[in-house]
Write a structure and sequence with these properties.
Pfam families: Epimerase (PF01370). It comes from Actinomadura luzonensis. This is NAD(P)-dependent oxidoreductase. With about 290 residues, the chain is α/β, with parallel strands linked by helices. It has one domain: Rossmann fold (3-Layer(aba) Sandwich), CATH 3.40.50. The chain is about 35% helix and about 15% strand. The chain contains eight helices and eleven strands. The strands form three sheets. It has a seven-stranded parallel β-sheet with strand order 3-2-1-4-5-7-10, sandwiched between helices. Strands 6-11 form a two-stranded parallel sheet. It has a two-stranded parallel sheet with strand order 8-9. α3 links the parallel β4 and β5. It is globular and about 55 Å long. The two termini are about 35 Å apart.
Length: about 290
């Protein structure tokens, strides 16, 4: 398929481009960063610089595509003014899905976020109702990032109501790659770390890229939302024991697929997408949380 990948110079976008090309797709990469005015490296995808908050840019990028992977976004609400996060993320998503509908794109893969339920960056903190968290968990976002991602999922719902496009929204957990495992997850492995909002969950970027390839090739109708995470938690801890230790009975514990389970359930992605992650923090870190390289 002819696939457009937005946010192609980010960690998720780069991995998605590589995985899609390896799967045989013809990829056009786009981002706000400037292209390099040199001869392309062998096998490099076509690149277009675009600001997707501009509808004209989005339509130019989407023209001729058969599928869109929309990974472009400001990735958290803490390092930009709230209105910038919300406007950038929501309008880029709106413009891309609008262009996809108008051009008859058949598949749209929307990179959403595990933060959609709202308990990651709240001004009035609260805990998830239960764990592992799944797609049925109530959605109560407060911050501009989670709101923009929630509204992005609603844009997918609207698109399938008015056209034949098929949409998949992926909600990845905290995305890791070989360059940041030790910095991000090392403390949790070494010390049993504070849980944070994600309850020790994480996603390997290459497993996420594999899920994106599956979503592009899926024939699921309508719009489906899937959590994407590693099956284990950072540190390989006894998940139930850690939840009880840190939260007592404040979080309902639901059945676990394994003792060292993630804080997110990917059962739906396993069942409907065929998502089968192959990578773990153990591939990058030793039991002391130090890099194996």
């Amino acid at each position: 398929m002819r696939v457009v990948v937005t946010g192609a110079h980010g960690k998720v976008g780069r991995a998605a481009v590589q995985a899609l090309q390896a799967a045989g797709h013809e990829v056009t990469a786009t981002d706000v960063t400037r292209p390099v005015w040199e001869r392309k490296e062998p096998g490099a995808p076509r690149y277009m610089q675009a600001d997707l908050t501009d509808a004209g840019h989005a339509f130019a990028v989407a023209r001729g595509a058969e599928a869109v992977v929309h990974a472009a976004a400001i990735p958290d609400p803490t390092q930009n003014p709230p209105h910038v996060v919300f406007q950038n993320n929501l309008m880029a998503t709106f413009n891309m899905i609008e262009a996809a509908v108008r051009f008859g794109v058949s598949r749209f893969v929307n990179i959403s976020s595990e933060t959609v339920p709202g308990y990651f960056f709240p001004e009035r903190p609260f805990l998830p109702d239960y764990a592992p968290v799944d797609e049925e968990h109530p959605v109560r976002p407060q911050d501009p990032y989670a709101l923009s991602k929630h509204f992005g999922e609603q844009l997918m719902d609207a698109a399938v109501r008015r056209s034949d496009i098929r949409c998949v929204s992926l909600r990845p957990s905290w995305v890791q790659h070989e360059g940041n495992y030790e910095r991000n997850l090392g403390p949790q492995v070494r010390e049993g770390g504070e849980p944070g909002a994600g309850l020790w969950s994480y996603t390997d970027v290459y497993d996420l890229a594999d899920a994106i390839v599956l979503a592009v090739g899926s024939d699921l109708p309508g719009h489906e939302v899937f959590y994407i995470a590693a099956p284990d938690n950072a540190g390989g801890h006894d998940f139930a024991a850690m939840v009880r230790r840190h939260f007592g009975d404040a979080i309902e514990l639901r059945p676990l697929a394994r003792t060292d389970a993630s804080g997110l359930s990917c059962a739906k992605a396993h069942r409907m997408l065929g998502y089968a992650p192959k990578r773990s923090w153990r591939d990058y870190l030793d039991d002391d949380g130090r890099s194996r390289s």
